[in-house]
Structures are given as C-alpha cells and as structure tokens.
C-alpha cells in the first residue's frame, strides 16, 4: 500500500511540475501576476508530494519490504538502520528520486526566498526549474520507477554493496546531489536573464547566494567522498581520478569561477556574458556527471546503472538542455550590454585570470575523463588517461592560479598600485622562496615540484593573512582597535579570507601527503614486527569478531612510536553476509604531523598475515583545509547583503511604490 501511495505521489508531483513549467512562463510573457503566482503554489505542492514519495520509499527500506523491487535488490533485513536508510540512495532508482526531491526543494526555496524578486524573473526561474524537473520525472517514471513491485516476493534481499555501508558514503551522495542540484538555480537565473535580456549588479547579488550554497554542498560532498576513499578502500589514497570523482570536480571548479565572476558583475557591472556562460557550463557539468554515473558507459564503485536505455534517455535530455541553453546564449548574449572598464592590473583582472585558470582546469578534467570513451567510440582505439596526466597538468596550472590568488586579494577595484603591492609582499615572497629552498634541501634527491608547490601554499597562506591584517590595520592602530575592526568585518569578507586560508592549508596537506608518504608491506607471524620509519609495529594476535551483518578478523597490533610512546591499533578485514565481499577497515592514528594507516590482509596460513602500513604526512591538513573552506562559505551565506531579495520593491494597494530596502554597505573585499 505504501509503495502504491509513493507512486501516486510521484504522479501528482509530475502534474504540478507541468503546471509550474507552463503557467509562470506564460504569465511572465504577458506580465500577468495572477498567472505567475501559480508557479509558487505549484512549487510548494510539487515539493510536498515528492517528499512524501521519498518518505514512502524510505519507509519501505526501513521495514524491509522486499515486494518493492529496488528494496529487494539493494537491502537486507540484517543491515543496521543507518544503512537501510542510506540504501535508499545507494542505487540507481533511489538516487534519481533523491535528485528530484532536492530539485523540488530548491524550487520551493526559490518560491519562498524569492518573493521579493521581480515577479517576472521569479516566474521564469521557477518555470525553468520545472522544465528541468519534467525531464527527470519522466526519466524516473518511464525507465527507473523506484516503486516497481515484484510478483514473487523473496524472503530476503540481496543487500547493499559492502563498500557503501559506511558513514562517509551514507552522507556523501546527499551533499553531492545538493551541490549538483543547487547549480540548477544559478542555471535557471542565467536562462531567465537571457530571456529578459538583462544582467545587472542586482542579478549578480541574487544569483551569488544560490551558487555559494551549491558550492558549499559540493565541497562537503567531495570531501566526504575523499575521506571515505581514504580509510575504506584500504590503500590510504584520498583521490584516484576516477571518472565519477572527476564528474564532481568539474562543476566544483566552474562554480568556483562563477562565484568570483559574479563578484565582478556585482561590483563593476561587467563580465556579464562570461558569468552567464559559466552558470550554464556549471550545471551542464552536473548533468554530465549524472550521465556518467547512470549511463553504464563506465565501471566504478560509484556508478549505478548499466542499462543502455536509461543512458540514451539521459543523453537525449542532456543534449536538449545543454544544446538549448547554448543556442539561447548564442542568440541573446548580444543583448547584454557591456559594463565598466578596468585596468590590466586590478581586482577585476585578477579575478578574470583566476577564472581562466579554473576553466582550463575544468576543461582538462573534461578531456581526460571523456577521451577514452570518445577514442573507443569514434576511432575504435582503446586508450586510458590516468593520474600522471592529471597530476602533471594540474601541477603546472596550480602555479599561476595560486600566485594570482595571493596577489589579487591585494588589488583594488578598477586600478591597483602594483608598486605598493610589490613592496608589501616582498617579505612574504622571500619567506616562500626560502621555504622552497629548505624543503628541497631536506628532501634532496627527490623532485623539485613538491617543494615549489609547498612554497606556493605558504605564499597564499601568508598573503591572505597580510591582507586581513591590512584591513584591520594591525600594528598601525592600537591592538584594541584592530580587534574591534576584526569583529566588525563583513561576513562576506570573513568568507573570502577563510576560503583562501582553507585552500592554502588543504593545498599544503595535499602536497605533503602526496609527495612524501611512506609505505611498508610484509607477511608476518603473530609476535613478529614490521618497521616503518622510526616506528615499530608488532602483531600480537588476530581474533574473529562478529558484526550486525558481517564477520571479521581483527588484528591486535602494538605500535611503538619513535618518541617511545606506545598505542594499540585494531585493523579489521570484514566479510559481509548478504554479499560475500571482503572490505578493509584500516586503523588510523591521526596527528597534525601525519597519519599512521594500518591494514590487515588475508591469512597466508594459520599464523601468517599480510600487513600494510602507510605513513601519510600532514593528511589531516587536507580535511582541516576543506572544513575551513566550508565554514567560510557558510559565514558568507549568513551576510544579509547576499540574501535573496529584490531592490525593486512592490506596489501597495494604492499603487504607490514601496521604498527600496537597504541592501547594506558595499563590501570592497570579495
């Protein structure tokens, strides 16, 4: 009964989506407020019924209703409750339903938070959001119905992929989908602006919070996925340039560029066409990620579908949305008037250059991800693009990108004093170069590039700190006054500083853990030891343990560190009941200096066990840096000047205009 209700709710949501897609656009073209208002009501109703459908599927998982086909294929009665719930989106059908639910949520948010937008703009945004939703509803109901019933109900389900039964993977997909779907709002604003032929600072102020919200969710989702890969897959790696990993990185890179480009539109009323184009590309990459995951054209632990029919449907939808939006851009971009001019050395120029580097980086990932597929399909040649390609290209792109990030925060709008800036940054440049030389000396015999990248991370960290110190006039006024200035900094400025701080800290962590990791692997008897660096690990025993839906062997290992301290580590190798698959649960000892990562392998005989040990220097700096970036985004979102609102005002019943609400003082630091 619950499954039938869920199916019925989805059909109702589809009907309301159709209303939301048609009437607001008609009302906007006629400037008819009564017709446009239908979009708001339809958006609320669509989200309500879609949420009910999602809850119905979740309930089917919780009670293990194996008459529902997707539950039988992807759940098991012995699974812990957390993984029963996360199993809802741990498969193709459920993940599409989650996507559509989030799309409906963002539509309802536009209806609620955009009530002060110009009515025609809000109506068009809601209509475009619904047109996107129509495609996904039809895809789901025609090819991927999550409520399909089984005639022969099995006694037990097949279970969820054991690799996905992890807290990191329980929360990683929802955050990633929130980021993907959040970019649909920026896309809808861009298409609405093209239809109206108007992009101005107010438009940029409206679109920035939605882009920033999507960027925050994408950052959280990517970080959780990297964290999961780090400790769950058993090789101590946090990124493997998997096509599905790349699918999440591409929209993140373009969304980062879009955020900075929108700042230029807001502050200087220029780069309008470029900003619109970035909004279209960002969401296009989100749709491309959907195609990669669900088309069956790749093999990945992240990928769900292998049905060509589904892939063809998504490909047609992808071509319609992306092709249509680019066609509209080609026809209407000339309507967007150019804005103010700026000097070659200015804040605007710095942001444009960073946009260029980020866009090239996204293009490189796009090429590397799809090249093997295109080569095979068009030329019949099997080829592969692996980590060396991506690492090399990104390594060189990082140099000018980070250099410009450290410089551009000191540039003023319209025209910058390069002589004064160079004098202020001389000491920081010297410290960064000294760090490069010292790092290369300490690691003599290794590669020079890690030392250069480490110096770049330090350069950005110190440059951001100096820019903040300049804003609060540190050491130029009494310390009490500097602290007061610090507390009264605009939240958007805090967001910028924290974002750059987090990026620099994460960059330093990435360089250290990628360049100077140590690995040791050995088959040892119980009682034998293995050395890694100045640390000694002794295998004391291996015992059998039982989990809720798995059996495991657990190693009991004593670790003696170089400073004489001793601690115990308990790595596990698990075999799941429903899916007889073995996974590793590494024992990780974390500190600011680095991680000890211990994995126990299969038994060679009764007393011999394979042990792998990794030392990952400064690994936690990556997670700390990403967390600081997310914190910066959240703080910036809380700045009231970037809440969605219209400075246009509304009319009273007497026909008099309500005065424009104050947006707040302009922020001179992005």
Task: Give the SSE layout.
Elements: H1 2-30, H2 33-62, H3 69-74, H4 81-86, H5 92-113, H6 119-143, H7 167-196, H8 201-232, H9 243-268, H10 272-294, H11 308-332, H12 347-379, H13 387-408, H14 418-442, H15 449-471, H16 479-487, H17 491-515, E1 518-525, E2 529-532, E3 535-546, E4 550-560, E5 566-569, E6 572-576, E7 582-585, E8 587-590, E9 594-603, E10 608-617, H18 619-637
Antiparallel strand pairs: 1-10, 2-3, 3-4, 4-5, 4-6, 6-7, 8-9, 9-10
Helix pairs in contact: 1-2, 1-6, 2-5, 2-6, 5-6, 5-7, 6-7, 6-11, 7-8, 7-10, 8-9, 8-18, 9-10, 9-12, 10-11, 12-13, 13-15, 14-15, 15-17, 17-18
Sheet having the most strands: 6 strands, antiparallel
Structural class: alpha+beta
Q: Could you tell me the number of beta strands?
A: 10
Determine the strand fraction and express it as a percent band.
5-15%
Total DSSP helices: 18
Helix and strand element order? HHHHHHHHHHHHHHHHHEEEEEEEEEEH
The percent of residues in helical segments reads: 55-70%
Taken from the alpha-carbon principal axes, the silhouette is globular
Question: How much is the average pLDDT?
Answer: 86
Please report the distance between the alpha carbons of the first and last residues: 53 Å
Q: Ranges with pLDDT <50 over ≥5 residues?
A: 644-670
Rg from Cα: 27 Å
Could you characterize the architecture of this molecule?
With 670 residues, the protein is an alpha+beta fold. Among the domains are: 2-222 and 241-342, no CATH class; 518-620. It is built from 18 helices and 10 strands. The strands form 2 sheets. Strands 2, 3, 4, 5, 6 and 7 form a 6-stranded antiparallel beta sheet that branches. Strands 1-10-9-8 form a 4-stranded antiparallel beta sheet, with helices on one face. The longest helix is centred in the middle third of the chain and has 33 residues, at 347-379. The radius of gyration is 27 Å and the shape is globular. The two termini are 53 Å apart.
């Amino acid at each position: 009964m619950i499954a039938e209700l869920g199916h019925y709710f989805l059909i109702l949501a589809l009907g309301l989506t159709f209303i939301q897609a048609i009437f607001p656009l008609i009302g906007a073209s006629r400037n008819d407020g009564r017709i446009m208002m239908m979009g708001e009501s339809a958006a609320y109703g669509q989200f309500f019924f879609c949420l009910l459908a999602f809850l119905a599927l979740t309930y089917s998982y919780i009670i293990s209703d194996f008459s529902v086909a997707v539950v039988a294929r992807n759940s098991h009665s012995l699974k812990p409750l957390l993984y029963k719930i996360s199993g809802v989106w741990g498969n193709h059908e459920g993940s599409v339903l989650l996507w559509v639910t989030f799309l409906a949520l963002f539509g309802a948010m536009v209806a609620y938070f955009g009530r002060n937008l110009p009515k025609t703009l809000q109506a068009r945004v809601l209509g475009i959001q619904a047109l996107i939703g129509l495609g996904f509803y039809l895809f789901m109901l025609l090819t991927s119905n999550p409520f399909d019933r089984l005639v022969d109900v099995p006694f037990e389900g097949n279970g969820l992929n054991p690799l996905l039964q992890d807290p990191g993977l329980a929360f990683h997909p929802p955050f990633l989908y929130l980021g993907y779907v959040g970019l649909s709002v920026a896309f809808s604003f861009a298409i609405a602006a093209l239809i109206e032929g108007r992009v101005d600072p107010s438009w940029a102020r409206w679109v920035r919070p939605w882009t920033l919200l999507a960027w925050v969710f994408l950052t959280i989702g990517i970080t959780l996925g990297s964290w999961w890969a780090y400790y769950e897959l058993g090789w101590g790696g946090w990124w493997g340039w998997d096509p599905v990993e790349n699918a999440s990185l591409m929209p993140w890179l373009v969304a980062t560029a879009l955020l900075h480009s929108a700042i230029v539109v807001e502050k200087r009323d220029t780069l309008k066409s470029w900003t619109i184009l970035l909004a279209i590309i960002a969401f296009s990459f989100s749709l491309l990620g959907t195609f990669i995951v669900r088309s069956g054209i790749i093999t990945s632990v992240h990928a769900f579908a292998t049905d060509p029919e589904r892939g063809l449907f998504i490909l047609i939808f992808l071509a319609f949305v992306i092709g249509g939006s680019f066609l509209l851009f080609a026809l209407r971009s000339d309507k967007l008037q150019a804005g103010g001019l700026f000097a070659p050395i200015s804040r605007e120029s710095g942001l444009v250059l960073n946009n260029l580097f980020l866009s090239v980086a996204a293009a490189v990932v796009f090429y590397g991800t799809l090249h093997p597929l295109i080569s095979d399909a068009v030329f019949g040649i099997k080829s592969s693009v692996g980590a060396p390609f991506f690492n090399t290209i990104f390594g060189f792109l990082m140099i000018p990108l980070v250099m410009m990030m450290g410089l551009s925060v000191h540039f003023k709008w319209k025209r910058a004093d390069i002589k004064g800036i160079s004098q202020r940054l001389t000491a920081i440049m010297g410290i960064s170069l000294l760090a490069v030389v010292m790092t290369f000396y300490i690691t003599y015999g290794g590669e020079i590039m890690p030392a250069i990248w480490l110096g770049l991370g330090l350069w950005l960290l110190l440059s951001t700190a100096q820019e903040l110190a300049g804003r609060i006039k540190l050491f130029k006024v009494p310390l009490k006054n500097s602290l007061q200035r610090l507390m009264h900094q605009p939240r958007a400025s805090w967001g910028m500083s924290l974002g750059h701080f987090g990026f620099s800290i994460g960059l330093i962590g990435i360089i250290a853990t990628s360049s100077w990791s140590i690995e040791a692997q050995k088959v040892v008897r119980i009682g034998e030891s293995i050395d890694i660096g100045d640390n000694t690990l002794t295998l004391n025993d291996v015992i059998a343990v039982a989990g809720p839906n798995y059996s495991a062997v657990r190693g009991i290992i004593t670790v003696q560190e170089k400073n004489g301290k001793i601690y115990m580590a308990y790595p596990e190798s698990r075999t799941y009941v429903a899916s007889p698959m073995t996974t590793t649960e590494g024992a990780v000892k974390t500190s600011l200096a680095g991680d000890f990562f211990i994995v126990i392998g299969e038994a060679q005989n009764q007393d011999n066990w394979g042990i792998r040990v990794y030392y990952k220097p400064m690994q936690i700096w990556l997670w700390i840096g990403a967390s600081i970036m997310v914190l910066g985004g959240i703080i910036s979102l809380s700045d009231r000047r970037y809440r969605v609102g219209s400075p246009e005002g509304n009319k009273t019943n007497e026909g008099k205009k309500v005065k424009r609400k104050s947006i707040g003082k302009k922020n001179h630091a992005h």
